[in-house]
Amino acid sequence: MSSIKKAIETCDAALDFLSQSSQAEDIPPAELAVIRQDFLSLLLLIYGSTTKISLAMKPKAFTYGAALSPLKDMSNHISALAHCTDMLLPKIHGATLVQEFNNICRDIIKSVKSLLVIFDVSETRVLESGDDYLVKTGEIHHLIDKARSSSRDGLSVDNLSAVRKKWQRDSGPLDDGLKELSDMIEYDADDGEDGEDDEWDELGLGSVKCLDEQELERAKQVYAIIRLSTLLHKRILQDFLSPSPSSALPNSDLDKLAPCSSALLSASDDLISSFYPPQDLSAIAAELNNFQESVDRLKSSLDAVVDGRTLQAQFDALNVIDKAPTSTLTKWYKTCFAQIQKTSQNLSQCLSANSET
Fold it and tell me: Of 91, 324, 117, which Cα lies nearest the Cα of 316?
């Protein structure tokens, strides 16, 4: 069996190993800082091996013998990377962080395998794959550079950073959705009737339609809801996911909050999209229900964070950035959730009334 095929099999074995989650929970956990540093060091070694393999096996300069050593090194590095990732324990290091490590590890191993498949030719045959190997080599380099970056996109240093990254990633799109809804409301109907061709017909999308009076009123109602939920998202990011170590929540609580951000973003986007004219009241009602369910799940996760303690006591344990009195913070969250629910119910009743007329 050629060294390339052995390296490919190593990649397959590493991916299978990662899917098994083989480490027992009773094994004393290694220090996260040590695991992370080893992981990043292995990525750097894979980066170098990738470069050497690509140079040795490039078309018209094919020297298989020169690739034997880096191919062997690559197999060792891939196996070590998988074992390093497997040292992380969700209950100890945090499920969100463990998933981030796994995703990076899998993406890199899959990309390395794809590169090796391109080079999976006989030792005497000249590679005729064009620039495919360069594209794949660049992809591996990009993944590794991104993971090793000290920016927000780099490998998280702990579970708090991993969860915070998810919430920060969704913050911008939530703002964009709110602006999209605002633009929809403020769109001047006269702009669509000034006699100028808006050129949408040429794209097969028809002319831009404006909201009628009832549609506009409904859009204003949902704007109030989306504005509150977007503000709620920002406030949770600030109050519960502050980078300050003194404000860090337990990993189990952080992991409960982690999926709530993307769920809120998805529900918010779907709800906003349903308000484009002509509005379908049944579709709006369905999306409004889904949105409220995502808010309810967020509230439940936030309640689970305090875990039997009063919200007052939880805020006392947090180093809140704005230093507002804890009683004020407690009241703010309760009021915000209640206001979202009340406004959603009002809109739902309005939809029901309009459907009956």
Answer: 324
